[in-house]
Amino acid sequence: MTNFIQKILLSLILSSLAMHSASAEVKAFLNKSSFFAGDPITLNIETDKKDNAQPDLNPLLKDFTIIGNSTNSQIRIMNGKSSFKKSWVIELQPKSKGNLTIPAITVGQFKTNPVDLSITSLPPEVAAETSKHVFIESTIGTSGDTTFVQQQLPYTIKLFYDSTLQTAQVQTPELENAIIEKLGTDKRYEVIRAGKRFNVVEKRFVISPEKSGTLFIPPATVTGRIALSGGDSPKLRQRMDETDMLNRFFNDFRNDPFFKDTFGGGFLSSRSRGPSRPFSLDSEKIIVEVMPVPDAFTGSTWLPAEDLIIKDSWATNPPNLKMGEPVTRSLTLQAKGLAGSQIPDIQYPKPDHIKSYPEKAKSETRTDGNTVYGIQQTDISYIPDTSGKVSFPKIMIDWWDVKNKKQRTFTLPEWNLNVAPDLSYSADKNVSTEDSSKKIAPENAKPSVDTLNDNTELASNIQEKYWDWKTLIALAILLLLFAFAIYRFKNSSKKLASPSTPIKNKAQNLSVLHSDCLQACKNNDKQLIATKLISYAQAYWADDSIHSLGNIASRLETGAEIIQELDQSLYGDDTKNWNAQALTKLLEDGLQKKQKNEQKNTDGLTPLYPA
């Protein structure tokens, strides 16, 4: 029992030593734990393990901006024993003030210890001296005294600085329940403030609150380094001398791309050498009260904008409609003062007697440098299923005018177009030319004498034309010649249809088409299946009048419902996933044609898939 306890204690001791050794493999530390806002923060990570592992710095990005980093390796030999140390020096810029923690950093299989630090504001005398050389302002503009949810708010940040500025980084506020988007490129100019000339870098945004209530816009912050001037107090210069080593270290990062991104991340002024001191300044915080959707708005979709229009592609290129043939209409909604992501999908009205297939809307955001424009384009395919006059309803979109604080409606007028019949289906309509030419008169109407004479003369002429013996002989000769031509054509076809070429080619063609259909079914590609199936049915039944899936379904003895399901999946409103398994079985068994007279096509669809 004693030996057992000793073994357990020994295992615990060895485990403790192993954990201590592992924790000693990699460590993190700072030169100090308290910093003023704007001070460079140098994080050191050291390890004695020889491998190619690199620290994962992603956990730092939550509270810090990584300015740069460097790596150093050392090997020491003392009294015949060698030691190895690898270190990483990482320059950080905190995103906020207060008590912060540098989280554990993973290096290979090991992790560093967390490190606590505090960031405090600069002493008053330092802030006062700094404001003489650099300061930051942020402002917001509105279209009136009331701001509604999703309404665009112009937001501007201006950095003012003189020649003493060496480096600067402006941090854009992070907002909750609001969208912030940049407008155009930064502006540069000069101004005179209190009799002194300043350079200005101006950056513009738009903020769109997504929730009603109080919108808090935090201060914009600028941090960086400013050159020491002769007017700085001895106490201040003494403090700067104490951090001179850090200043020199900071200068090593001046060529880092971070500082070349003007005002978007870092900013490097013309004066970039000599002793300097850090600084951090904030603009004023901004509070905006956001109102909910007003009761005066009665539209179905809330669209607060400065202006709104819809462009119709048919306005410049109206279509020629034909029964069964698809046409496309592009409707482009443009809202000034809204981002593209803020415009919901618009449901446009559907016309009668026309099948409508809208595509997924495409949205984007553009800017002219002063405001944003949300653009949404919707393409709609129409397929008329009847001929004659059709009406496309007018389109009315309600929106809220943020400038005049009232509801407006944009209207596209209706279209009244004529749909031409599809002549390829005229035979199926059984329209008799003779019947359509008859004129039906009222039962109590009596024909005049002139009308009776005209009808009698017409009947006499017709009788002479059809019963004239010369005409009968000529017709008989023509019929004989026609019968002889048909006889010769059949004999020549039999000779040509030798087993060597045409019949073989026809069989090969059917085999290829059949294989193409099965392959399309295997891929479950509905569009390709429809195309290949129509071509195969035309060749299989030697019937060129087949132009749609409806034609095939109407001719099948069995399996018509399978073809109809495919047709509904392609064109109907049914969004269920369609599976080609049943169609594959139908193709393998063969397309059995009805023995009775072929049914007329009543699906109204003309060939969307040409052979």
Topology:
Blueprint: H1 2-23, E1 26-30, E2 34-36, E3 41-47, E4 64-78, E5 81-94, E6 98-102, E7 106-107, E8 110-111, E9 115-120, H2 124-131, E10 134-140, E11 147-148, E12 153-161, E13 165-171, E14 178-193, E15 196-209, E16 213-217, E17 221-227, H3 234-242, H4 244-251, E18 266-268, E19 276-282, E20 286-291, E21 304-305, E22 307-312, E23 321-322, E24 327-336, E25 354-358, E26 362-367, E27 372-384, E28 388-392, E29 395-401, E30 406-412, E31 415-420, H5 433-436, H6 449-467, H7 469-496, H8 502-523, H9 526-541, H10 549-555, H11 560-571, H12 581-589
Parallel strand pairs: 2-9, 11-20, 21-29, 23-31
Antiparallel strand pairs: 1-3, 3-5, 4-5, 6-9, 7-8, 10-12, 12-15, 13-17, 13-18, 14-15, 16-20, 17-19, 22-24, 24-27, 25-27, 26-27, 28-31, 29-30
Helix pairs in contact: 8-9, 8-12, 10-11
Structure write-up:
The chain has 611 residues and is α+β, with helices and mostly antiparallel strands. It folds into 4 domains: 23-120, Immunoglobulin-like, CATH 2.60.40; 124-289, Sandwich (Immunoglobulin-like); 296-421, Immunoglobulin-like (Sandwich); 502-589, no CATH class. Helix content is 27%, strand content 35%. The strands form 9 sheets. Strands 22, 24, 25, 26 and 27 form a 5-stranded antiparallel sheet that branches. Strands 1-3-5-4 form a 4-stranded antiparallel sheet, with no helix packed on it. β14 (178-193) and β15 (196-209) form a beta hairpin. α8 (502-523) runs antiparallel to α9 (526-541), α8 (502-523) runs antiparallel to α12 (581-589) and α10 (549-555) packs antiparallel against α11. The radius of gyration is 42 Å and the shape is elongated. The relative contact order is 0.07. The model is unreliable at 16-24, 236-272, 426-467, 494-504 and 597-611 (pLDDT under 50).
